[in-house]
């Protein structure tokens, strides 16, 4: 037995030694239970300490994150003052944010804050009024205050949306989700066989179809014509107006004599390299182009009050905010000059491009299921060389 005891655990040894001594056995049990209780209490304390430490860490992280978010929001708020600054704050702080900062030597801060406030066009009037009330300001800012801010305010006042009426068929705002294209009738089919309207391609709620530029005796679009980058007619006419449609379907009325791309000017009616390079860019950018008479450019009439020929007229016109509208005189017989002048006076048109009319008059508005409005259909066997289509 002794040899066996040598290889047993200590507890076995103790049990063997004390098994015939009741007193010793009782003491041993008491000591064991006290030891277990101490271990249990110690374990509880360890768990509680870990839990408290965990809470401290979590609370610390929450506080840190909260301060970070608050700091980030403050930073965003400060950097976005131009869009969200209150007008009353502007009135009281304008002098502080600019001239006081200038006087205190905070040059960069003064100009940065001025720019942020200029981002919001509603602040322009307040800034202009403040400068007007100053008895003196440095001449380095005089042109910007007296000329630029005046022009900003003037143009902002004329940026009102062109509301539809009996003569405004539709207006397409620059920021709206319209999509324009030109359908060229390269097969020279009569209109009734051409049928440019294809319901399956209408991705928007409505579609407007209207005759674009003039059709030649060969049933071909007259003047420069490009379809999604592909040249349809390379022969430029003597008219200054271009309707340019980018690859996203946005329309622009341009003067052929003042074309530019990436800070380079293109004189495509004078310089062969400019002509070829511009058409190469049109191919690369997938531009669509038609040419017509430019009746108004930069808000000024481009024609003399000469002809008294009065007909029903239709035109595209552009305003300084980039919106494109379609005007139709409907039952009014007017001259080109009268139409152009009226579009300037009544709608603040900056550019006006004439559209073909007479027997080539075509203008219809559809939905996916029905025809909404009919402003004109060509007679049978007439060939339209091109149709402007706008989904919106």
Description:
The chain has 392 residues and is an alpha+beta fold. It folds into 3 domains: 11-79; 86-157, no CATH class; 168-391, no CATH class. Helices cover 41% and strands 21% of the residues. The protein is built from 11 helices and 18 strands. It has helices at 2-6, 10-18, 22-79, 81-84, 87-103, 107-119, 124-132, 142-157, 191-194, 272-285, 336-347, and strands at 168-172, 179-184, 206-211, 225-227, 230-233, 241-245, 251-255, 259-261, 264-266, 288-292, 294-297, 300-301, 314-318, 324-328, 351-354, 363-367, 371-376, 386-391. The strands form 5 sheets. The chain has a 6-stranded antiparallel sheet with strand order 1-14-13-15-11-12, with helices on one face. Helix 5 (87-103) packs antiparallel against helix 6 and helix 7 crosses helix 8. It starts with a helix and ends with a strand. The model is unreliable at 1-30 and 67-92 (pLDDT under 50).
Kindly state the number of beta strands: 18
Distance between the termini: 103 Å
- The overall number of domains is 3
Unreliable spans are 1-30, 67-92
What class, by secondary structure content? alpha+beta
Helix content: 40-55%
The biggest sheet amounts to:
6 strands, antiparallel
Widest β-sheet, arrangement of strands: 1-14-13-15-11-12
H and E order: HHHHHHHHEEHEEEEEEEHEEEEEHEEEE
What fraction strand? 15-25%
Mean pLDDT: 81
Number of helices: 11
Radius of gyration in whole Å, from Cα? Answer: 40 Å
Could you say which overall geometry the principal axes of the C-alpha atoms support? extended
